[in-house]
Predict the structure.
Amino acid sequence: MSQTKPSWETLGELIATRNSLALLRFVNTLSTSEIARAISRLDSEEQLSLFSLLNPEDAADVIESISEAQAADLVEELPSAQAAAILEELPSDHLVDVLGEMDGSSSRAILARMDVEGAAEARKLLSYKPDSAGGLMVSEFLVFQTDDTIQSVLDDLQANRSRYADFHVQYFYVVDREDRLAGVLRMHDLLFPRRQTLLTEVMIPSPLSVAEDTSLTELREFFEEHRLFGVPVVDARHHMVGVVLPGAVEEALNKRKTRTFLRLSGIIGGEEFRTMPLASRSGRRLSWLSMNIVLNIIAASVIALYQDTLATAITLAVFLPMVSDMSGCSGNQAVAVSMRELSLGLVKPGELLWVLLKEAWLGIINGLVLGILLGFVAFAWKGNIWLSVVVGGALAANTLVSVMLGGMLPLILRRLKLDPALVSSPLLTTVTDMCGFFFVLSFAAAAMSNLGGL
């Protein structure tokens, strides 16, 4: 039975033949995810050859099929003139995403090779915060004047149909003589009126709009309330500068979730792919792991203070990681809830007392339940009620501390302008370990006369 070759092997063979037409035909048969996978398996020389064999428009289609981080790594290796020609074919929002992933020198070199108007537009878009309306908007939109007629609009669409074909057009926008947003036209508004009808007679006046600095959270709330295909973005003078599409907002929200997940998992500095340079991947991971060494030394120092107690009742060593780990899980649940409520706007960084009280009651209940369960396990194993009281009481106390701290940490860090996703987990882990060790060993020291020999 014959076995189909992996897509990257076929792609490599076509690159070696230098047959551009056959190469393009094969690429067009692949799904978006398979294109990204196949390109990632090529060596650097083959990747450069792939883009040199495709014309800029087809190369741009390939760039759109892969992640911005992967695209940036590939484009940075191309000659700046070739990279500029490819990126000029991308939609403005995707162009800015790719440039934003590059280092400053590479992006500047490419912008210098782009046409003056396109480069100026890209620099303007790059000046916005990535998760704002300005950073998410597309600058390709159709705008007409209030004194235009239906006929003049139709003539313009016909005359520029090849250029407008790549625009994401759901609405047409109308501006006044000072270029201020005045109205919006839907597709069917152009079909039925008389050809000499002025746009002011059929447009929807004073349309909804958002400011350039509107946040991602506010944009999500906007599209949840208004089921529109896009919303115009205006500057301080109410001049229209772009359009935000709901798909761009959804994609940005997914990226934010991915970044949060990576940071909580210890991947710092953005997305990591196994096709990235080894030194870069190592640095991203070590920046987290080296910090954790320091934090774990702090937690372990508590054990050193009670080493005599631990030596007398060595059984306690079995319960130390159980108490710290179970409490850590409870604390991470509280961290997750606080981060989610912060992102939804359900809680503000100043509402520490409210969060503290909510988590305290939950910590008391869950701490008692978990403490009783662990105490029962300890008694069933060693038959010593004092051991049960020590480990069960330590778990109950540490659970209470961890959920209160876990609930408050994201709020405190947000107020300090620090990233809760990056800092909350290591801080919580250190504190729960340190407190867990302290509770177990200090309670054991108090009851040592009843624990000897365990």
In short: Residues 143-261 form a domain with the CBS-domain fold (CATH 3.10.580.10). The first strand starts at residue 143 and ends at 145. The chain has a mean pLDDT of 83.
